[in-house]
TrEMBL record:
SMART domains linked to this entry: Cpn10
Record SUPFAM superfamilies: GroES-like
Identification of the protein by name: GroES family chaperonin
InterPro entries: Chaperonin_GroES (IPR020818), Chaperonin_GroES_sf (IPR037124), GroES-like_sf (IPR011032)
Entry similarity comment: Belongs to the GroES chaperonin family.
Provenance organism: Promicromonospora aerolata
Length: 98
């Protein structure tokens, strides 16, 4: 990757989700999402805030899709990332940094 570019693998949604209260939400009831999560698989040399393996929050409307070896990836600039979820290795919890 060059400059401030990130190559991310978007997370795929399951057909059905379950709410925190235990209710099953069918796939037909899900509205359009504004932001989506992805995992960083490669980064350019000028990327400062994000590391490979981090989960990032990005706008799926503003993206460039890439197909590499039959897998779909998204190419982003670092400034297009809205948030980073980094895992804390001490207790395994996740913190969200916006």
């Amino acid at each position: 990757m060059l400059h401030d570019r990130l190559l991310v693998e978007p997370e795929t949604d399951a057909a059905e989700r379950q709410s925190t209260a235990g209710l099953v939400i069918p796939a037909t009831a899900v509205g359009s999402k504004r932001l989506a999560w992805a995992t960083v698989v490669a980064k350019g040399e000028h990327v400062r805030q994000v590391d490979v393996g981090d989960r990032v929050l990005y706008d799926p409307e503003e993206r460039a899709e890439v197909d590499l070896a039959g897998r779909d990836y998204v190419l982003l600039r670092e400034r297009d990332v809205h948030g980073v979820a980094e895992s804390d290795e001490a207790d395994g919890s996740t913190g969200l940094y916006l």
